[in-house]
Each structure stands twice: as C-alpha cells, then as structure tokens.
Amino acid sequence: MTRVWQWNRPVTVREVLEDLQQERSIAYTTVMTVMDNLHQKGWVRREAEGRAYRYTAVSTRAAYSAALMNEAWSTSDNPAAALVAFFGMMSAEQREALRDAVRVVQYDGESAADAPAEPHGEPRAEAPAEPPSAPSGEPSPEPSAEPSAPPEAEGRSAEHPRPPGR
C-alpha cells in the first residue's frame, strides 16, 4: 500500500516489483499475490490493461491514519484524558499542524476559527457529545501485515483493518 499511496496513480504489479527490488529480493508472484489480496479485501480497485491489472488505492493514506487515530481514541474509557495525553506527546510542529487542522474543521455549522478563543488566542475545539462508533480490528505492530478489511471510504463500513504492508 505504501507504494500505491506514494505514487497516487494506478500502478502495475511490475512497477511495484521493480521498486521493491531496489531494496530487497522479492518474487513477482509474491507482489502479485499481495496486490490481489489487497483487491479482495477492498483496499485497491483494479482495471485490466492488456494482460495485466492497474491497481488504485480506494482510500488515501491520510484517511487511513485518521481512522486509526479515531479507533484508538474511541476505545478509551476516558476520551478527554486520552486526547490530553496524546497532545502531550506531540512535538511543537505536530501541535501547530493540529491547530491548523482545527481551524478548518466545522462544528455544527460554526467553523473552529469562529469559536470562542481560549486565553492564548487559539480556537476552542469542543469534543463531540458521543465518541464516534469504534471500528473493529486491532492495528498490527508489524508494518508488513496485510489489511483484513477495507478502510472507511466511499460508502464502505467503518470497520478498520491492520495497517497494510508495502
């Protein structure tokens, strides 16, 4: 998935293979099997092109990351405390990115920039009344694990798989 997300265009098994072979030895059939598994699980769409397929990601990497964060947050028995702890782990750059993101998010038709400001001039972000429904599935500690279900995208369910491999 990393290659498909990075290129952000339809890719063939051969293209992924050649890119992976710059880092390690891997067989064409291995890449073909992984791409087919990703298709079967709904992570990628494929279109025939001659005797090969071109694969396209169903969801962006950003949407996948957001779903993972939502899953972790929504499983907490104290979401506010979990967010405070998470924010405390952030670097200054990450906190600035968060501030920028909050500014573009709208709450009940009111943009965060229009919300009452906190003492330091930052817009106040209010937590939703109820946490979003928790997607099922556990994130895998191994980056090479394959997904077990598609991410929330294009009308798909909110079930969330382990992170896909490269």
What can you see in these coordinates?
- There is one protein chain.
- The chain is 39% helix and 10% strand.
- It has a two-stranded antiparallel ribbon with strand order 1-2. Strands 3-4 form a two-stranded antiparallel ribbon.
- Mean pLDDT is 74; it is low at 115-163.
- It starts with a helix and ends in a 55-residue tail after the last strand.
- The protein has two domains: 1-75 and 135-166, Orthogonal Bundle (Arc Repressor Mutant, subunit A); 77-130, no CATH class.
- It has helices at 2-7, 13-20, 28-40, 61-74, 79-89, 92-104, and strands at 44-49, 52-57, 106-107, 110-111.
Characteristic terms for this protein:
mainly alpha, 10% strand, two-stranded antiparallel ribbon, 166 residues, elongated, Arc Repressor Mutant, subunit A, 6 helices
Quick overview of this protein structure:
By secondary structure, the chain is mainly alpha-helical. 39% of the residues lie in helices and 10% in strands.
Topology, pairings included?
Elements: H1 2-7, H2 13-20, H3 28-40, E1 44-49, E2 52-57, H4 61-74, H5 79-89, H6 92-104, E3 106-107, E4 110-111
Antiparallel strand pairs: 1-2, 3-4
Helix pairs in contact: 2-3
